[in-house]
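Sample intake sheet
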Amino acid sequence: MFDKDTKRFKNLFKNNNFIFLNKNIIKDMNENKEPIIRIDYTVSFDTQFVSFIERYFIGKRIEQIEEFEDILYKLIKNDVNSDYMPYIFENIAKGESKEAIKLNIKHIVNFFHLDKSSSCLLKNMQIKNQIQCDLDYNDIVENTIDKINYNELNGFQEQQEIMYIILMKMIIINKEKKSPKQKINELVNFMHNSIFTIFDRELTIAIKFYENQNELKFFNKVVNINSKTLIQLSNMAWDLALVRLIEQAYALRPREEADFFISYFLTFDEGLSQIIDCYPLKAILMLNKSETLQVISNVDKAEIVQKYKLEEYFSIEAYQFRNKNREKGKEKKSILKAELEDKIKEYA
């Protein structure tokens, strides 16, 4: 299912041809045994797709209805493992009412409890076990939505705020009459001297944007700054924060017996899908099933550094400078955010 639909079912890797390695696999191979690779996976959904499910089952119009139904049939036919956390995190962090979130979750839970033997048409399918369906829904409400981990939520909100600051700076730089190379250098200088972190994924996205503005649909609504630009940039920042949340999910172990966990993300948002593809991962290194995670990108950073003359920002001294000043960057974040918002308003 995932191999054939990489447009909608996204993982953060370049493709689905995974290689797995740990001590147990090495031990089995050294003993000429067939390695046992215990894999767990889940599919999470973006807010748009969740809203599509609600609209579909109450009879409202949906664009791309045939493709959407095809995805629904795939989900229910393959009994996929579903993860609601990215949707819940994003919408609670945005300030969406819990009642609205619960209603959408209710539609999703109902969908995954449909009895596919009750009809060949999705809209005519009946819930297989209403009691179990209600129990599962109540469990999500009581143990997730009503007991959200606010430490994790704060971390997600902070990530969104940083992404928002970077996006605002990207758009402001784009208004300047400079070459793509000059714009990229200015953005890296900003990351280095103002927020004291070089964000590789966002830098890669910025390079694609500055080199060819028509290539990424993600930026279509903000190329020309207007009164709605700040709201649109804030929503885009949630998308970037969500991608990082999915990346961090690879460190999770929902099932203790599994050695590896793969997180898929289902989206109909072509702009979001494009930015995920901008920065494919080559590998993820994990330390002893802990949450210590290191990602290795398929993007050649050395080539980027050389092409855009960024050597000074990737030296040991530059890294030490950023590491030393990172806390200072967090303290001045609100001032930086306000200054950039004022600048965007001037252009609007």
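Comment: The longest helix spans residues 150-174. The chain is about 55% helix and 10% strand.
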